[in-house]
Inverse folding.
């Protein structure tokens, strides 16, 4: 967090969510998840496929009904919001989706895709002004006037993701959930989109929840990082604490999978495997604050061991 006086924008407390409750394919996707996101920060959420990252994002936007727990946005409980409050909330909080192709309506031109967002925000019906606003949005994300009349399939993956970002920006949000916004892109394009997101954050004072598989990418963007495994947060701390001083064996295994740019270090790198079976032993585990702002999930004995191993 750049600003120590920053206010909490999002507060998530003891969130639980089960898909297909009571059925054979019951799936506990979120297990007692708690964390806060401060105004103006980027909170990175990492974990392997199926760990519950998207489920957290969608729960924040009230796209899912949770079993229990609380989600507050600027002090207001999201889950009990009525239609009118919810509409106002959905202008302030937007999501950039995992798959840019599937999230854009293929039958609309870019001008109309962005125009839809502008209409939702109650933007002027004056055609000229609206057109100008569409062009402003395109410039903001590094596209231009010629792109306005085209359809989504006429764009590259990176350009599509830029359109997704422009659409999220159309309603002038304060908070953006970026759900693996770069995983579907070429490595060369990934950096461009990351830089764009960072610039937009600076220019518009945005708060981000940035979701990714890859800890290396999250580290560059995030002020703080949460590590998710099987629907549980296992570690939470500043980017430096989690990346350079990890405590939980799962975080360590994720880090050991990140290639080193230095060939000597890369040669010495050993991938650490993680055996998650102990998580199912029925013992109670809590998030323990090991140093200021740095939390790890474990029993008392495990946390002591993690601290010893870190030294
Ligand atoms: N709509 C749904 N109905 C039933 N189960 C679901 C649904 N959405 C997700 N799940 C299950 O919940 C778990 C968490 O899924 P989620 O999509 O949140 O994972 P993720 O961390 O975003 O994974 P990925 O990195 O692959 O996007 C998975 O086991 C998934 O199969
Ligand atoms: Mg996902």
């Amino acid at each position: 967090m750049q600003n120590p006086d920053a206010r909490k924008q999002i507060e998530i407390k003891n969130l639980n969510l089960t898909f297909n409750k009571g059925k054979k394919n019951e799936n506990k996707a979120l297990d007692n998840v708690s964390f806060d996101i401060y105004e103006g920060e980027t909170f990175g959420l990492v974990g392997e496929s199926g760990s519950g990252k998207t489920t957290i994002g969608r729960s924040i936007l009230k796209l899912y009904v949770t079993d229990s727990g609380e989600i507050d946005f600027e002090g207001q409980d999201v889950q009990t919001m009525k239609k009118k409050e919810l509409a106002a909330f959905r202008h302030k909080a937007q999501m950039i989706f995992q798959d840019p192709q599937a999230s854009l309506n293929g039958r609309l031109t870019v001008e109309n895709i962005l125009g839809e967002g502008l209409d939702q925000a109650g933007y002027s019906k004056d055609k000229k002004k609206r057109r100008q606003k569409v062009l402003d949005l395109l410039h903001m994300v590094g596209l231009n006037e010629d792109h306005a009349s085209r359809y989504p399939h006429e764009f590259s993956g990176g350009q599509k993701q830029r359109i997704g970002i422009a659409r999220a920006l159309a309603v002038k949000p304060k908070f953006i959930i970026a759900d693996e916004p770069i995983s579907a892109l070429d490595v060369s394009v990934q950096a461009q989109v990351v830089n764009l997101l960072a610039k937009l954050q600076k220019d518009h004072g945005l708060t981000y929840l940035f979701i990714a598989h890859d800890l290396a990418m999250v580290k560059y963007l995030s002020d703080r990082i949460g590590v998710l495994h099987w629907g549980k947060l296992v570690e939470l701390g500043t980017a430096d604490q989690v990346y350079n001083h990890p405590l939980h064996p799962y975080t360590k295994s994720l880090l050991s999978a990140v290639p080193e740019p230095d060939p000597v270090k890369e040669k010495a790198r050993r991938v650490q495997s993680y055996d998650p079976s102990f998580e199912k032993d029925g013992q109670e585990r809590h998030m323990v604050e090991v140093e200021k702002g740095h939390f790890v999930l474990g029993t008392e004995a495990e946390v002591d061991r993690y601290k010893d191993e870190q030294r």
